[in-house]
Write a structure and sequence with these properties.
alpha/beta; TIM Barrel; eight-stranded parallel beta sheet; 14 helices; globular; binds zinc ion
Length: about 300
């Protein structure tokens, strides 16, 4: 069956710009070798690389350009369902409203925007994203991104109010959870935050009760196998649990996370996952169909 194009529901703006554009915008010299993700580099190292990019993307005009180019690149890959996510407060050259409006102009209806807060951020930031989304239907969801620091606890409860307000307003909810960390993060994201989707969730099968919860609530997992291998959440793409998830009836969609940092496209990632034992062609088609179905709509 021919499906209506590919999907990517988990693509970070600040990790998915063109390397050429970054070179064009950058006022600091950099080598792409130092900037790009490498296998097993770990999550803290990955997050540190965003800081460099964000210094080059402070202003609305730059955010608009990058958002537009990401949509162009996605179209060229054959993606017809796209969501782009970013933390407006991380672009410090203007108020978050102006940054979001610039991204919306760049996207120009070609993708949904997801506004991210980071674990550890003041919960008021996530609530502010809900306020911004209320008057901007192009913002389709909020997300909790990054990862809780060791010793910080799981840190979901402070964000529950923002997520509840989002749910009441018909705004989508997703969270980075179980990215090589405890599956209890996945449980909390579902039970405490009320998310409809989970980013990564690589440890889902470590806890049968969490698996049961994901199935019962019809939660969709945004799987990012290459990213997971690079952040050491899994040892290799072949070890990604995607095929097992599909066998168990878990809904999952394959995403790139960061096309620039990982030097991948959705087409590449659909090829990469063929290394996963037991993953069938029908299974791959199911993940694409899930991507179309699970997109946040307002
Ligand atoms: Zn992500």
């Amino acid at each position: 069956m021919d499906l209506p194009g590919l999907t990517d529901l988990h693509r970070h703006l600040d990790g998915s710009l063109r390397l050429d554009t970054l070179r064009d915008l950058s006022d600091e010299p950099f080598s792409s070798k130092d900037l790009l993700f490498t296998r097993g580099m770990g999550l803290p190292s990955a997050l540190a690389k965003f800081a460099f990019v964000l210094r080059q993307l402070r202003t609305p005009d730059r955010v608009q350009r990058v958002a537009s180019e990401i949509c162009e690149d996605a179209e060229a890959e054959g993606i017809t369902t796209l969501e782009i996510r970013f933390g407006p407060h991380l672009h410090t050259g203007a108020r978050p409203e102006a940054i979001v409006d610039a991204a919306l102009e760049g996207v120009n209806g070609r993708a949904g925007l997801i506004l991210c807060g980071l674990y550890g951020d003041d919960p008021a930031i996530l609530e502010h994203w809900v306020d911004i989304a209320l008057t901007r239907p192009g913002v389709v969801a909020i997300d909790l991104a990054g990862g809780p620091q060791i010793g910080q606890g799981l840190f979901m409860a402070p964000y529950a109010t923002a997520f509840k307000r989002a749910a009441e307003a018909g705004i989508g909810r997703t969270a980075h959870a179980g990215e090589g960390r405890s599956p209890d993060e996945i449980r909390q994201a579902i039970e405490v935050l009320g998310v409809q989707r989970i980013g990564h969730g690589t440890t889902l099968l470590d806890d049968p009760a969490v698996l049961e919860l994901v199935l019962k609530r019809d939660i969709v997992i945004e799987a990012c196998p290459t990213s997971n291998m690079q952040t050491s959440a899994i040892n290799s793409v072949a070890e990604h649990p995607l095929a097992k998830w599909l066998d168990l009836g878990v809904k999952a969609t394959v995403c790139t996370d960061n096309t620039m940092f990982s030097v991948i496209s959705s087409v590449d990632e659909l090829q990469n996952i063929r290394a996963i034992p037991g993953l069938t062609e029908a299974g791959i088609q199911t993940t694409i169909a899930t991507g179309h179905q699970a997109a946040f709509r307002r």
